[in-house]
């Protein structure tokens, strides 16, 4: 028996495509002839070699008889080769004799300078019989091919296995290397490969592959023909292998020849149980198997299944979601189904979490209702209306319910602002507390591991990025970890956040952040407390040095997850291999999608090495002891790479003699079978091919104690990571031994003494550049809980909270732990009254729930009185009794003024709510998203306001106009409430109005940076005022104007007369104080720190602004000036007026005294308010200060400094 086989590549022949229509760069031409004699048969092993089974004598005779054919063909190939630069031909003669396999191999090829022939006669038991190399020079004569253009010899060793099936070992060497022998010793590393074609499925364009794993030998593959025009599956085939993928059996006859299968599901708790769904266009049924697909039972169903959800513990319990929004349950693995609930939101249904929900068959559901959605909890088989629980009061936003581990999350949007709620350990819902001016537009839960919530939050001023926030254990109080995370959208519109949890190392994460319009990769070792850029490798894959210095240059990685479940994705790590991360990335100033390479770290991110200069898919083999790399390319491949020394050395192996389109790789990395399955195509029209690769031959034995070594986890040399010193164990690089599945990765662990970085900043605190935590400008660190009464004590935060899962040991008195303090008596402050639903309208006869909120005060010693406005009042001895809300029903329509009053021995507070009681629901003709409280500006008139209520009198004023004018007749503070209604939509806002007889004012401007942090809401303007000084607003008051740029008006008010004082300040004295302020502002001495590394300077401005008050003359009577308490800014007014009262003897003395007081007070503010104001003293020479003030009085004094007796306020 004799055979010649020719194969070649050419650029002028089109090549076939795989299922996705990918094209190959070079095409393949195969020519062959085979002759059979004396009962011998030829069997072509592959497209490059032929196996012959004839007797030696017959084979030799035919070999000599057909030699001329081979000579002619080889000559023809050489002639054809001369016409095309990329054509190559290989010819081989093989025969067997005396149980030996002989192969005469020749290879013809040419590069840009040379053409050549290499001939070698091999057998499987000895060295080459003879060998000849001939180089046909077509360029400058050289004795050896130049580097990078050398020809390759291919040596095939054919052996018979025990069952008679052929197996191959393929090895590549560069031409010119000495042959190392053809006999494969058992100790030589090798791969055993076999290929199986799924005949008849060449037209199928989709496949679902399942391997049970856990040392199971069963593999299932479902191939489908999906018609994109019809949007349905028209054909399917189910294949099963029971020998790790060596052979497959078609199961279409077992499931029904006419049955079209659309999906394959595997029970996660018992992978022997398989469920198949038939295409509903043909028949609606489920096929069930309890023996890994060896047999199936078909059960018809009455609905079309869109998705399935298996119970996390009970293998027979399943939830099924139908196309019409109904949820069904089965307790016998799909044999019988029962309706649970209709109008269920897609993907918003969850099984009970074991250990948290009382009933293991409980189901958490989000259902669609008229006003949004509701959170419903019931049992899967008993979800009648009587058995349903509505655990969240009121409605929730659609598609907002998330049940994950110990947490239940939901969202409620009112007046255009979203609020997020969390239930921890199935307790009552609490509002999630993000930093006050985060003002989230969107939130996504990233992780709830280790009883802590990681959330990606899109803040009010972010459009394409999100910020990473980390919670305390109950998931209520969140602190900022990293700003401006890079995000993208998946194919279905789902949000993808560039955030990666490194497996195997506690507290280690990677994230891509947008910095100055560039995306950079950062790493943290302490659960987000500090982040740093990644160091670049010292050399590239070729060994050339890389000059890359942080922060100007660093390593950047792609962190997105793979959309294909059968590929590894751009980054991978494994819990069983702590410290090793392999990722796709680039080196430079920012993350790029070009010039990508593969990088690896073996010491948990402290140093990196480049391993490939092209993108590869990387998998961990042998329980993490080996690495498998497959080129990620649209072209077919034949080789794979394996490393046994953490990527330092890679061995190339051929898994296919013909180029192969790899569509996916299936493996069980933490099992002892050492099997890999590649599936894909040779061409677009070829059958599905499944390649079984057994890599057990790479290892010589199982690892012993001497095959391991230890390594110590560190962060840039710091051995204490997450509060402990950890030493890990790993296999010595390069040892070809198999890891045992249960060997311990952690060698030792020792706790460290706690430091500042074992603690994160508590809620309301921010970490400064020096590493210390200080209060945010909006946070009051002295605030205590409402339930804290005099005589009791509480734990007050020092600004730190210990990082969850941190194992540091606290020694002695810890300055970071909360301190116990006594509760001080406090008057009630910040009383608010809302309805339980958040609405300000209700139907007559319905129960309305009123909720009383107290911002500060002793709730246990504060009584509360609620006047419903219909003649009924109710009083509670303390506020804690009203925590669950107060219900009341109105019997008649109308607008009711509901008043809440809180009082204790130290003071009182009150608030008002206007409730609209209507007979029938009224349509919302206009959407009211936000109520803006504006004084004396006419822009609000453009709103179509249907009802306004201005309440600061005994009787409210009701009008259809967009503005109301009113004149106050005496000094004092008045609370004004404005309510706007459109249909059944009602909004309300309140403000405090300060009335004074005369005042002085200055116009202020701020650094442009402040505009970037200005959400343009009243609360922010109030807090910005308080951050400057914090003095009482009765002496200095600043009102920030709405809109951008951020501007304000500073009001200098006369001091309040006490009963012991009979003289009050004059307008002239206020003018002298105003002159001092002008001097300070012009010198640039007034500034404050808004947040970390954000310092804001305050300036005086000549900009003309609309006045806050109407200065026209009154018709009669003595009117008082009206000011608006929107934002308060002060500069130690208490000390100013105290000095005035004791030293107001002369104007010059007062000016000198004021200068000294200001100089001293600025230094006091510097130490008390974390350098929020000027940090340097003012000019020491009083006379020089006075001269400068005198010069600037006329030049810089605003035009409204001398305002007196403005008459009215316009509120809109």
From TrEMBL:
Lipoprotein as UniProt keyword: no
Compositional bias ranges of the Basic and acidic residues kind: 170-191
Transmembrane segments: 1117-1137
Membrane topology term: Single-pass type I membrane protein
Signal sequence residues: none
Lineage top rank: taxon: Eukaryota
Domain PKD residues, every copy: 857-908
Protein name in UniProt: Sortilin related VPS10 domain containing receptor 3b
Organism: Hippocampus comes
């Amino acid at each position: 028996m004799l055979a010649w086989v020719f194969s070649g590549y050419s650029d002028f022949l089109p090549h076939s495509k795989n299922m996705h229509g990918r094209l190959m760069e070079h095409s393949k031409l195969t020519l062959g002839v085979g002759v059979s004699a004396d009962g011998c048969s030829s069997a072509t092993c592959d497209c490059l070699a032929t196996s012959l089974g004839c007797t030696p004598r017959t084979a030799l005779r035919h070999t000599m008889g057909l030699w001329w054919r081979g000579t002619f063909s080889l000559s023809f190939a050489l002639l054809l080769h001369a016409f095309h630069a990329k054509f190559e031909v290989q010819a081989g003669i093989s025969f067997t004799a005396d149980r030996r396999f002989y192969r005469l191999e020749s290879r013809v090829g040419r590069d840009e300078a040379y053409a050549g022939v290499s001939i070698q006669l091999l057998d499987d038991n000895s060295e080459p019989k003879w060998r000849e190399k001939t180089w046909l020079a077509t360029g400058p004569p050289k004795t050896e091919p130049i580097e990078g253009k050398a020809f390759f010899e291919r040596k095939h060793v054919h052996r018979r296995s025990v069952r008679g099936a052929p197996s191959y070992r393929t090895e590549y060497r560069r031409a010119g290397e000495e042959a190392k022998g053809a006999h494969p010793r058992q100790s030589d590393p090798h791969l055993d490969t076999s290929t199986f074609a799924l005949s008849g499925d060449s037209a199928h364009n989709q496949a679902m592959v399942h391997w049970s794993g856990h040392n199971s030998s069963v593999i299932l593959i479902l191939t489908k023909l999906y018609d994109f025009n019809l949007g349905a599956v028209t054909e399917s085939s189910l294949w099963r292998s029971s020998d790790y993928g060596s052979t497959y059996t078609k199961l279409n006859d077992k499931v029904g020849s006419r049955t079209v299968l659309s999906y394959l599901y595997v029970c996660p708790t018992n992978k022997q149980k398989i469920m198949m769904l038939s295409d509903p266009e043909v028949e609606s049924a489920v096929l069930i198997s309890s023996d890994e697909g060896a047999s199936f039972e078909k059960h018809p169903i009455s609905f079309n299944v869109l998705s399935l959800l298996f119970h996390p513990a009970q293998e027979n319990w399943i939830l099924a979601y139908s196309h019409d929004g109904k949820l069904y349950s089965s307790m016998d693995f799909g044999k019988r189904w029962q309706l649970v609930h209709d109008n269920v939101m897609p993907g918003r249904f969850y099984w009970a979490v074991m250990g948290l929900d009382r009933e293991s068959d409980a189901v958490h559901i989000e259902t669609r209702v008229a006003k949004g959605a509701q959170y419903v909890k019931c049992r899967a088989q008993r979800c009648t209306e009587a058995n349903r629980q509505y655990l969240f009061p009121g409605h929730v936003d659609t598609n907002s319910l998330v049940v994950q581990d110990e947490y239940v999350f939901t969202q409620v949007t009112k007046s255009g602002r979203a609020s997020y709620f969390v239930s921890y350990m199935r307790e009552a819902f609490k509002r999630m507390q993000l930093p006050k001016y985060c003002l989230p537009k969107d939130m996504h839960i990233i992780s709830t591991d280790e009883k802590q919530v990681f959330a990606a939050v899109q803040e009010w001023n972010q459009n394409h990025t999100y910020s990473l926030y980390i919670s305390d254990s109950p998931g209520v109080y969140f602190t900022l970890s990293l700003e401006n995370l890079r995000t993208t959208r998946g194919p279905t519109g789902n949000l993808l956040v560039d955030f990666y949890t490194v497996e195997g190392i506690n507290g280690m994460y990677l994230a891509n952040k947008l910095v100055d319009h560039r995306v950079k990769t950062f790493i943290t070792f302490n659960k987000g407390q500090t982040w740093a850029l990644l160091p670049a490798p010292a050399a590239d894959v070729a060994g050339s040095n890389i000059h890359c210095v942080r922060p100007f240059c660093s390593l950047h990685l792609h962190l997105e997850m793979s959309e294909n479940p059968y590929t590894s994705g751009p980054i991978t790590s494994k819990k069983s291999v702590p410290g090793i991360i392999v990722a796709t990335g680039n080196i430079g100033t920012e993350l790029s999608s070009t010039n990508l390479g593969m990088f690896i770290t073996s010491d948990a991110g402290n140093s990196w090495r480049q391993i490939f200069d092209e993108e590869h898919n990387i998998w961990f083999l042998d329980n993490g002891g080996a690495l498998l790399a497959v080129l990620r390319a649209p072209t077919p491949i034949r080789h794979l790479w394996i490393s046994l020394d953490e990527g330092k050395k890679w061995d190339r192996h051929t898994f296919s003699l013909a180029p192969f389109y790899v569509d996916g790789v299936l493996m069980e990395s933490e099992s002892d079978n050492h099997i890999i399955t590649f599936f894909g195509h040779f061409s677009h029209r070829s059958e599905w091919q499944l390649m079984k690769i057994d890599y057990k031959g790479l290892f010589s034995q199982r690892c012993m104690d001497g095959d391991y070594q230890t390594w110590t986890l560190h962060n840039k040399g710091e051995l204490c990571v997450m509060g402990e010193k950890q030493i890990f164990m790993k296999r010595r690089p390069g040892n070809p031994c198999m890891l045992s599945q249960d060997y311990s990765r952690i060698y030792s662990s020792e706790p460290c003494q706690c430091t500042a970085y074992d603690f994160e900043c508590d809620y309301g605190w921010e970490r400064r550049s020096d590493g210390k935590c200080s209060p945010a400008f909006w946070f009051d660190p002295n605030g205590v809980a409402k339930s804290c009464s005099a005589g009791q004590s509480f734990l007050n935060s020092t600004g730190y909270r210990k990082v969850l899962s941190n194992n540091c040991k606290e020694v002695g008195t810890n300055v970071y732990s909360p301190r116990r303090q006594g509760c001080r008596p406090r008057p009630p402050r910040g009383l608010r009254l809302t309805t339980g639903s958040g609405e300000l309208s209700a139907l007559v006869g319905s129960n309305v729930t009123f909720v009383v909120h107290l911002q500060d005060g002793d709730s246990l010693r504060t009584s509360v009185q609620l006047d419903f406005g219909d003649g009924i009042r109710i009083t509670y001895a303390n506020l804690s009794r009203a925590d669950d809300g107060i219900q009341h029903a109105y019997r008649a329509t109308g607008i009711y003024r509901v008043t809440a009053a809180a009082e204790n021995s130290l003071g009182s507070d009150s608030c008002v709510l206007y409730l609209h009681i209507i007979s029938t629901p009224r349509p919302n003709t206009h959407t009211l998203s936000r109520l803006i409280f504006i004084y004396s500006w006419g822009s609000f008139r453009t709103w179509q306001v249907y009802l306004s209520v201005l309440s600061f009198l005994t009787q409210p004023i009701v009008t259809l106009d967009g503005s109301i004018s009113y004149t106050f007749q005496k000094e004092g503070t008045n609370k004004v409430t404005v309510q706007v209604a459109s249909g059944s939509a009602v909004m309300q806002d309140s403000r405090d109005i300060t009335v004074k007889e005369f005042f002085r004012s200055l116009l202020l401007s701020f650094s442009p940076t402040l505009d970037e942090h200005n959400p343009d809401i009243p609360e922010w303007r109030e807090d910005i005022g308080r951050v400057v000084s914090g003095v009482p607003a009765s002496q200095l008051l600043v009102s920030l104007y709405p809109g951008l740029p951020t501007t304000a008006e500073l009001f200098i008010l006369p001091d309040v007369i006490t009963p012991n004082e009979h003289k009050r300040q004059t307008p002239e004295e206020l003018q002298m104080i105003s002159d001092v302020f002008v001097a300070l502002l012009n010198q640039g001495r007034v500034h404050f720190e808004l947040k970390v590394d954000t310092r804001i300077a305050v300036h005086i401005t000549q900009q003309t602004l609309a006045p806050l008050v109407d200065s026209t003359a009154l018709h009669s009577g003595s009117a008082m000036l009206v000011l608006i308490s929107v934002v308060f800014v002060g500069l130690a007014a208490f000390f100013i007026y105290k000095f005035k009262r004791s030293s107001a003897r002369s104007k010059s003395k007062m000016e000198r005294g004021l200068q000294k007081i200001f100089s001293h007070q600025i230094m006091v503010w510097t130490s008390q308010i974390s350098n929020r104001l000027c940090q340097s003293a003012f000019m020491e020479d009083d006379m020089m200060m006075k001269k400068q003030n005198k010069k600037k009085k006329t030049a810089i004094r605003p035009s409204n400094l001398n305002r007196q007796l403005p008459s009215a306020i316009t509120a809109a």
